[in-house]
Amino acid sequence: MGxxxxxxxxxxxxxxxxALKEKINVAAGFDITLETAWETxxxxxxxxxxxxxxxxxxxxxxxxxxxxxxxxxxxxEALKESLKKVIIVNNDNHHNPTNAYTFSEGVLxxxxxxxxxxxxxxSRTKVLTSLLENNL
Length: 136
Prior knowledge:
The chain has helices at about 5-15, 15-30, 50-70, 75-80, 95-100, 120-135, and strands at about 35, 85-90, 100-105, 105-110. The chain is an alpha/beta fold.
């Protein structure tokens, strides 16, 4: 990760991440352990788009999915008992949400390209909600 990426990451972590993390916690109903492999989330030619795409790809689907799951007490309890940690990474450049999410042993991993199909939040939310509902 070069200086440009480090600067972007620092700015994102200071300006956008706290509010997104708080929304995730509120939606889930508890403080989620969230680990982000920032160094994997870059492709140089798209750096100028990440302020807009990171929330849409990584965070909004979590917020919307957790909100749907925790709409009742049964969902709140199931999520709190089952979800131990969320890991955000881009190891395989998945663009299709069907391949980007895994949930195993309490760990939800989001392994998604940081830029492609950014505006398709609803598809990611749908896949993520289904995955969690089927495994909680």
